[in-house]
Amino acid sequence: MPQRFRNLSYSVPWNLWLLLSGSAIFAFGLKAVALPYGLITGGISGLGLLLFYVTDLFSPGAWYFLLNLPIMAVGWIFISRRFVLYTIFGMVSLSLFIELLPWTVVLENKFLAVMAGGALMGAGAGISLRSLGSAGGTDIVAIFLNQRYNIRVGQVGFTFNMLLFGAGLFFLNPNDVLYSLAMIFISSWVLEYFLGMFNQRKMVIIISDRQQEITDSIKTNLRRGVTLLHGMGAYSGQPKEVMLTIINNIQLKRLEEIIYRVDPKAFTIVGTTSNVLGEGFSRRKQY
């Protein structure tokens, strides 16, 4: 991968674009789809909606902005100032989009709103979190816990939402709360998909007596590295050369053709990785 593409993820325009587009998509799902049907969106935005439904003191966008202010201190102290500055941009963008978007999506029933709202908000949050910041809210706490304890971002949000919906049962129609829970389940799944879709690769383990030919062909035709492991067959007791390589989904079919053209008796294992860091793949994200 050329150096300029690897550096793109750290450029200011790219990160601002991710935050702006992610906030717009999330706000559309909230304002145009979830809000007209009385749904709670989850996270700090959902807490803001609950307070809006119960108190009617401020608009949802204003509640979102006010609730985020103390959370920014967590990011400033435990993550980085750069992260907080990007997040302030994302938070202000999302608050403004929520306030200014004029559209309402009319759907046949509330279940369609659950699916559409969950997908839009999950996609928007996932795009924002691909940046070096976030759109605010529980994302800040989730990133802190992910960095310190490797807790998945979606799990943090889902746990917070369970507590939020428990409180919502005392103030809202139970049917709306259950619909909202289903919407957040969809949102969490889409969020995790967007966070992992650019980092997933195929890990392929190859066992063959023609190791050198396969290795050379992989390096020449796919331009991928190969790690050689020394193994032994448990049944035969004979030493075996085991090859391990990491490729993308597009290259998988070509790799199969390379392997079985050289050795029709080769044994291969293909697994999907959740993340690959290193030369030729993603770099470790530093906030």
Automatic annotation (TrEMBL):
Q: Which residues form a coiled coil?
A: none
InterPro entries with a match to the protein in the record:
DUF2179, N-reg_PII/ATP_PRibTrfase_C, UPF0750_membrane, YitT
Question: Which keywords accompany this UniProt record?
Answer: Cell membrane, Membrane, Transmembrane, Transmembrane helix
**Where does the DUF2179 domain start and stop, copy by copy?**
224-278
* One of the record's GO cellular component terms: plasma membrane
Cellular localization per UniProt? Cell membrane
- TM helices/strands, residue ranges: 12-30, 37-55, 61-79, 84-105, 111-132, 153-171, 177-195
Among its keywords, does the record have Membrane? yes
Transmembrane as a keyword of this entry, yes or no, is: yes
Its record classes its membrane topology as: Multi-pass membrane protein
Classification via PANTHER family: UPF0750 MEMBRANE PROTEIN YITT, UPF0750 MEMBRANE PROTEIN YITT-RELATED
Q: What is the name listed in the Swiss-Prot or TrEMBL entry for this protein?
A: DUF2179 domain-containing protein
Which species is the source of this protein?
Desulfocurvibacter africanus subsp. africanus str. Walvis Bay
